[in-house]
């Protein structure tokens, strides 16, 4: 008898986005003429940069020759890409990252989901609330949690509440944990963790021999000077942190797939008897056993993002999406809603009007304005009463959606 992993049965009702898709599908089936504008899931809409396309094409042609053909590549990623990534870190006050500390992958979703495998099932996990759901669900699947309660919180998981009172900035808890997931700029709140708070996280992690999984998938959207782009800008972080970065949102790679993790060589985990073990070595073993590398043309396309032309194209993409975010922020603020994010991130996080629940407001916007947003409660109990609007949309759709939301809220 094939027994299943019963931890999967602990998962609370579907992953957030399939539930949104289900409601939108039901609505459009009943209203086939409706022109729905989707500002829910954070998927990019602008075309792939020219520099990237040219590099991918050239690499594909290269593979069509006897001399240029390549089979399996290095699991960790080609040196040309890892070197380009490492060089780019130097922009941050000369930050030194060894190319050997970089693991290229097919996405930060996979990385953030897979990395937990190398840690004990007894590890105490801490997450923020609201949170990118993948961090939670993958730990539920692995069996590191108890069952879910009515608020959607799992037993044995440590939640760090991010609310209006702390401006949605997570601070280290007074208690210990072994692994903590931090996301900055944050999905869903769009906020950035200030340097001083990151310093306190690093000293907390070092004190407890904990590891910070720092998800910087939206790093490219940081526009305010002085904000922290990499956890490794914080002294001591090399002894307690792993950084995740993705090309999905800066280079428009959601359909192309490329990301990476930085795992410092001096980062240690421990056995139950307290013996230090290299996390880099453990992940290297895991990555090379279960992954056979990102396609060569895709890695060439990714490396092209680091060329002067590529950087300019990224800049244009970011500018476009952040201008959308400004429009969203201004519209929602003018409607009297409390608004967060959207300055250093492609997400605007806003309070629903007059205490409406997140899903009720989602349904109102879907039915009355034909606009899809993401209900804040889908990201955790503290997200109840909030909604997230993604700036990844075409300008005309943003403008139309904001007009519709204005009339919908004015009428309600
Ligand atoms: N991390 C965060 C915080 C995200 O919001 C997302 C995508 O929405 C990802 C990771 C996934 O990135 P990728 O497309 O590289 O898998």
What does this structure look like?
This protein has 412 residues and is an alpha/beta fold. The protein has two domains: 13-42 and 309-411, Alpha-Beta Complex (Aspartate Aminotransferase, domain 1); 52-306, Aspartate Aminotransferase, domain 2, CATH 3.40.640. 36% of the residues lie in helices and 14% in strands. It contains eleven helices and 15 strands. The chain has a seven-stranded mixed β-sheet with strand order 2-8-7-6-5-3-4, with helices on both faces. A four-stranded antiparallel β-sheet has the order 11-12-15-14. α3 runs parallel beside α8 (296-304) and α4 (108-114) runs parallel beside α5 (133-142). The chain is globular and about 60 Å long. The model has no long low-confidence stretch (mean pLDDT 96). Residues 42, 107-109, 112, 132, 183, 187, 215, 217, 246, 248, 254, 259 line the site of pyridoxal-5'-phosphate.
């Amino acid at each position: 008898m094939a027994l299943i992993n019963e931890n999967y049965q602990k998962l609370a009702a579907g992953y957030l986005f399939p539930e949104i898709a289900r409601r939108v599908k039901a609505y459009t089936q009943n209203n086939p003429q409706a022109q729905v504008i989707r500002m829910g899931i954070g998927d990019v809409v602008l075309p792939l940069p020219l520099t990237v396309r040219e590099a991918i094409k050239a690499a594909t042609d290269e593979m069509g020759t006897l001399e240029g053909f390549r089979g399996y590549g290095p699991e960790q990623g080609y040196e040309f890409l890892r070197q380009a990534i490492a060089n780019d870190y130097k922009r941050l006050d000369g930050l030194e990252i060894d190319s050997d500390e970089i693991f290229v992958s097919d996405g930060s979703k996979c990385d953030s989901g897979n990395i937990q495998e190398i840690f004990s099932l007894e590890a105490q996990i801490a997450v923020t609330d609201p949170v990118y759901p993948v961090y939670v669900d993958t730990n539920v699947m692995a069996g590191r949690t108890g069952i879910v309660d009515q608020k959607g919180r799992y037993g044995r998981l440590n939640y760090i509440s991010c609310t209006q009172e702390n401006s949605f900035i997570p601070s280290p808890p007074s208690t210990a944990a072994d692994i903590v997931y931090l996301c900055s700029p944050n999905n869903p709140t769009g906020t950035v963790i200030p340097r001083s708070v990151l310093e306190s996280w690093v000293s907390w992690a070092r004190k407890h021999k904990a590891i910070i999984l720092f998800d910087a998938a939206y790093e490219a959207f940081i526009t305010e000077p002085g904000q922290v782009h990499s956890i490794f800008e914080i002294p001591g972080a090399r002894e307690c942190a792993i950084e995740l970065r993705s090309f999905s949102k800066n280079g428009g790679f959601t359909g192309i797939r490329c990301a990476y993790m930085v795992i410092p060589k001096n980062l240690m985990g421990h056995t139950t008897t307290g013996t230090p073990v290299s996390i880099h070595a453990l992940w290297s073993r895991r990555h090379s056993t279960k992954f056979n590398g990102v396609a060569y043309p895709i890695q060439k396309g990714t490396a092209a993002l680091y060329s002067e032309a590529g950087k300019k194209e990224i800049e244009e993409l970011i500018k476009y999406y952040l201008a959308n975010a400004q429009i969203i922020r201004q519209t929602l603020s003018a409607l009297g809603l409390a608004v967060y994010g959207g300055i250093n991130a492609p997400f605007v996080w806003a309070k629903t009007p007059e205490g409406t629940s997140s899903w009720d407001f989602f349904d109102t916007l879907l039915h009355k304005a034909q606009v899809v947003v993401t209900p804040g409660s889908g990201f955790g109990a503290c997200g109840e009463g909030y909604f997230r609007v993604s700036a990844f949309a075409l300008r005309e759709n943003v403008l139309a959606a904001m007009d519709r939301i204005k009339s919908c809220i004015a009428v309600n």
